Amino acid sequence: MWENTKVYQYERRHYLNVKVIRMGIDILKTVDVIEIMENYIVKVRPSKGIRMQLDIGYKIEGQSVVLVEVRPVWNNQSKLREYGYAKATFIKSKNVWRIFWMLANQHWECYKALPEVVTLREFLEIVEDDKMHCFKG
Q1: 20 pLDDT more than 50
Q2: Predicted local confidence at residue 16, as pLDDT
Q3: Cα(64)–Cα(126) distance, rounded to whole angstroms?
Q4: Domain span at residue 109?
């Protein structure tokens, strides 16, 4: 399962496990997704002073983009763990993004208030507004 994992260092001592999985989206759409996500992450990342304890990132898995919190493991501060809190999956046949949020039991649940959006930017706006308090509590 983790044979295609690459470890990237960011900041001084933080590492992200990024699964290298073939995107089900064409290459131009993939470039757009990365650009949109990088611009979003720049806006929402915490200040440098607390990034060692809490950081925000994303990962691309297949046709999904997952927003994650990156935190140290509670009993081993030298190890980091990613906690997904919002996911958008591209449905190619409909040309829409389906929105999910993470339940306490670690299962993804469809966001019932607005289950599908046309653009990734709309998904990010919904996560930021978080009117139902599903994504950030």
Answers
A1: no
A2: 44
A3: 16
A4: 22-129
The number of C-alpha atoms within 13 Å of 54 and in the hemisphere containing its C-beta is 5
**Whether pLDDT at 77 is above 90:** no
Reading the block at residue 43, the tokens are: 């806006």
Strands (E), the chain: 5-10, 14-19, 55-61, 64-73, 76-91, 96-102, 108-110, 116-117
- Answer yes or no: is 134 within a domain: no
Domain count, the chain: 1
Tokens (6 digits) for 80: 């980091």
Answer whether residue 5 is part of any domain.
no
Copy the structure tokens of residue 31: 């470039």
| pTM higher than 0.85 | no
